[in-house]
Amino acid sequence: MNNVASILILIFLAISFIQSGYDKLFYWKDNLDWLKSHFAQTKLKNHVPLALLNILILELISGVLCIVGSIELIVNNGRVFGLYGAIFSCITLIMLLFGQRLAKDYDGARTIVIYFIPAVMAVYWLN
Q1: Where, by residue number, does the polypeptide cross the bilayer (predicted)?
Q2: Is the CB of residue 72 less than 8 Å from the CB of residue 78?
Q3: Which end of the chain is more exposed for a tag (fewer CB within 10 A), N or C?
Q4: What is the DSSP letter of 41?
Q5: Cα–Cα distance between 55 and 7 in angstroms, integer?
Q6: Residue 2's pLDDT is what?
Q7: What is the largest CA-CA distance in the chain?
């Protein structure tokens, strides 16, 4: 078990993104209503549904790649899917961070950084 830390971070990212994607998918209207008000004073105000769909797709891709990457690490020490999962996670988090900064939600942006740190660690370890 040389990859325990990487596996744990990939599982952490998978749970985070799959749960978030599930929430967006099954509570689409609630999320859309909240985000429309959140971004009402920004340049994204007319693009919230498209942005939400984009984030949903990226979260689900990130989560699935992290799950497959965890299994790959356990089964044969492969790192390809885990690395892609970590990279997609970082891209998704950067997009979320951009949105929070644009909306001037600095507490929300700070929370995203907490997720970004282990995602970058996973990229480093799996590269």
Answers
A1: 51-74, 81-102, 108-126
A2: yes
A3: N
A4: T
A5: 24
A6: 75
A7: 50
